[in-house]
Amino acid sequence: MAWIFDEYSKFHGHSPAVVTGKPIDLGGSLGRDAATGRGVMYATEALLAEYGKSISGSTFVIQGFGNVGSWAAQLIHEKGGKVIALGDVSGTIRNKAGIDVPALMKHRNEGGQLKDFHGAEVMDASELLVHECDVLLPCALGGVLNRENAPDVKAKFIIEAANHPTDPEADEILTKKGVVVLPDIYANAGGVIVSYFEWVQNIQGFMWEEEKVNMELHKYMNSAFQNIKAMCKSQDCNLRMGAFTLGVNRVARATILRGWEA
Ligand SMILES: NC(=O)C1=CN([C@@H]2O[C@H](COP(=O)(O)OP(=O)(O)OC[C@H]3O[C@@H](n4cnc5c(N)ncnc54)[C@H](OP(=O)(O)O)[C@@H]3O)[C@@H](O)[C@H]2O)C=CC1
Ligand SMILES: O=C(O)CCC(=O)C(=O)O
């Protein structure tokens, strides 16, 4: 991103707003690194509150411990959530009493692999997505929930932190089972929201403090959830359909307002 910004600026003058995801020293936004995981945490909080539950006291299973998964795990742990199983390519681990996420981060940052972490036992990777838990967070790949494993999912809530982790067949199976799926289009939007904040800061020529970035992100995630919820209520549909309907309606409304007829 730094190179793209630099090349573009050579031809058009200093243009930091031309691309987002830049290093902080070149006009990137504070809070962008954690933004997707933080947005996932805010989305989870909003969804659970709807069901009279909270992160604290709930159990979580997380697939993927990269940017999204590791930030989501840390922030959920900070909020009192119990991460009971977690996996990446190097291994899959579990601890019924809750994994000490800061200790696991330290282990990983020192070059250790998940399977060698002393605070948990190694488990079979194929059991991760169907492990007993309140909330399942796929934070790795698309298509991991499919017709093969969806019937065995035990989570009550799935937060789609990765892009399209649930394929359409699995979506149908999970809905029939009563599993609540929070769609990726909303759940993992924290990254693109803070990229938007980066653009806003660049065109303002003013850098926000991280606290402001996080506070604005919280506001956006909460109000988006309320809007999706209202759409689901008025259309009697699930969260994925509610989120899509909201998005498509906004584009349609803007198109008509600009003078284009449907
Ligand atoms: N980063 C962002 O801002 C955003 C990301 N997303 C989506 O979130 C998902 C994750 O992105 P991000 O965290 O940035 O990516 P990273 O590359 O940082 O992390 C991916 C993680 O998934 C793990 N992984 C890969 N394959 C498997 C597998 N077969 N089983 C278990 N774990 C696996 C990787 O393990 P290992 O480290 O061992 O390779 C790694 O821990 C993607 O779908 C991405 O599109 C969506 C919105 C924004
Ligand atoms: O950084 C961004 O602007 C968006 C990132 C994102 O949505 C993704 O990686 O899927």
TrEMBL record:
Domain Glutamate/phenylalanine/leucine/valine/L-tryptophan dehydrogenase C-terminal as annotated: residue spans: 29-259
EC numbers: 1.4.1.3
Keyword tags: NAD, Oxidoreductase
Pfam families, alphabetized: ELFV_dehydrog
One MF term in the entry's GO annotations: glutamate dehydrogenase (NAD+) activity
Catalytic reaction(s) noted: L-glutamate + NADP(+) + H2O = 2-oxoglutarate + NH4(+) + NADPH + H(+); L-glutamate + NAD(+) + H2O = 2-oxoglutarate + NH4(+) + NADH + H(+)
SMART domains recorded: ELFV_dehydrog
One GO cellular component term: mitochondrion
Superkingdom of origin: Eukaryota
SUPFAM superfamilies xref list: NAD(P)-binding Rossmann-fold domains
Matches recorded under CDD domains: NAD_bind_1_Glu_DH
Top-tier EC class: oxidoreductase
GO BP of this protein: L-glutamate catabolic process
Protein family according to the UniProt entry: Belongs to the Glu/Leu/Phe/Val dehydrogenases family.
The name this protein goes by in its record: glutamate dehydrogenase [NAD(P)(+)]
Organism: Aegilops tauschii subsp. strangulata (Goatgrass)
